[in-house]
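User: Some background: our group keeps a shared notebook of sequences we're curious about, and every so often someone picks one and asks for a predicted structure to add to the entry. Today it's my turn. The entry only has the sequence so far, pasted here. Could you supply the structure so I can complete it?
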Amino acid sequence: MFLAFKSRANCRLLFILFFLSSCAPLFTAKPPAPSSFVTDDLDVASLRAAIGQSLAYFRKLPPDRVVGEQPRRFTAAEIADSLTAFERLLGSGNCPACIALELDARFELVASSASADSRDVLFTGYYQPVIAGSLTPSDEYRNPIYGMPAELAAGQNGNGAAPASFYSRREIDESGALKGRGLEIAWAKDPVEVFFLHIQGSGIISLPDGGRLSVGYAGQNGRPYRSIGRLLIDDGKIPKEEMSMQRLRRYLADHPDERDNIFAYNESYVFFRAVDNGPLGSLEVTLTAARSIALDSRLFPKGALALMQTSIPIIGPAGELAGWRPVTRWALNQDTGGAIRGLQRADIYFGSGDQAGALAGYMNRPGRLYFLLLKPEAKN
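Assistant: Of course. Here's the predicted structure to add to the notebook entry:
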């Protein structure tokens, strides 16, 4: 096998980037060589764009800043040097064998955990929804999308102490705890869409006049995230094997009388801000569809290039799950999330719109994750 790209504009690079053994298993007992396990199914342009976003982040940091603790401690300089060297290799135009040799000689792939027991990673997906909304409230648009309350913003910025316990979802949505404070950014038609906007962390508000407003994550109320999907599984209302975002939406549509209590189970409440070049990840750089991933920001090296091995959904003509396609793909650690905790969780950003939503909604598969690093002796 070899590295193949969908875009014909990049066919010069079809055979330039990497070699891959055709008999390689999906998961290996030890990290593969950099020149192996590379069947990247996307275009080079998206990869270079995502790398550029990470490098923009690192230009703002001191070189000795620690940006990750797992699978070992990493500094900003280490990750930035690795990205720069890899990007140069992408555009080198050398023969495939030459690049394969250079990859193996200069780079290493480091498993996401030093412990073999923690190397299996659950990959899920997220996307940027497009929802109907308005900049003014009305009988049609009555569900507020709130900006960050000043007392929470002050605490996050270190300019004050955040409240020990801020309002819960039920207090905000049902009791109107934030009404009258002028915090509304927009109003949406559908409360279900607002709830899923909170889960995704960013979105596009489609306005009545045809305009669009991009909103991104600004913060949350400090209460723990709890999965309503898990709630419905545990209550026996949706079988575990059927759970997906699509199945969850169908249940909410079929049981509107249960909706408020189901939503209130997740007390975590997300606040938004208007953004110009969204969606922005936790590094304040624009995310790249299918190239950006969210990992636990307390653990893994921010902005790093990773190689992920998993399977992604195949979507049928009616939006149904039609199967799974194994992929080995380069991705950049550019985001995080309230539900993305620990060594064994990763969330793939699929982009915006219905197709991205379908992919994200079904995505729930095991896999492996490796970080690409320049060997210390290869820095010069």
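Suggested note for the entry: The mean pLDDT is 88. Residues 87 and 122 are 28 Å apart (CA to CA).
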